Amino acid sequence: MMGIYGILTEVRDGTLVVSVHRPPLNALTAELLEAGIVLTGHGSAYTVGVDTKIAAALDRDGRIRLLNAVNAFTAALYRLPCAVVSAVNGHAIGAGGIMCMASDWTVIADTELKIGLPEAKAGLPFPEVPSIIMAHAIDPVWRRRLALSSMLLGPAGAVTAGLADEVVGPDQLIETAMERARTLDGQAAFRQIKADQRRAALDEITAITPRS
């Protein structure tokens, strides 16, 4: 296992497992967002989103850099042609919820974890790309509820709201996610159908963050 800027990677049975490792709660910084793609978290959290303490202390240039990093990171994740499966091992807050919506499948551990989009409570408006992903990923009623109320949901509620697809025991989480990734990507037309389904959202994203 190798770590770069708080990112750990491991190859298991031909599947690349990438995890955030920034204790204690895998909070995100601009450096971390610029470094890699997250499928699971290391430790007790998937990710609690942007580090609000660091964000609050940023000057104007720092805030712009952070917003650009969030947009670039989520755009890169959403553009991936291969199957992307989130294995939610702990709290998935803010950007963590967005990453679940940007994934093709989300498996969530049956624990006391919480998932949601409490940016309103945190005083952090949604950047443009996460807003686009939200608009195309979940039902408008749930989008309104989650974004305006800052409510946090447990595993079953996350499936109901469309933030996750299935709940499994914690000891089954990674293996289940790996199997879902292999099954999805093993379908002959998976990548074409994924591209077709995301075309409208990707056109909007490209208008904001053109491919480099």
Explain the overall architecture.
The protein is an alpha/beta fold and 212 residues long. The protein contains ten helices and eleven strands. The protein has helices at residues 30-33, 52-56, 60-79, 95-102, 119-122, 128-137, 140-149, 155-161, 173-185, 190-208, and strands at residues 2-4, 7-12, 15-20, 40-41, 45-47, 85-88, 91-93, 105-109, 115-116, 152-153, 166-168. It has a four-stranded mixed beta sheet. Strands 5-7-9-10 form a four-stranded mixed beta sheet. A three-stranded parallel beta sheet has the order 6-8-11. Strand 2 and strand 3 form a beta hairpin. Helix 6 packs antiparallel against helix 10. The longest helix is centred in the N-terminal third of the chain and has 20 residues, at 60-79. The chain is globular and about 45 Å long. The model has no long low-confidence stretch (mean pLDDT 87).
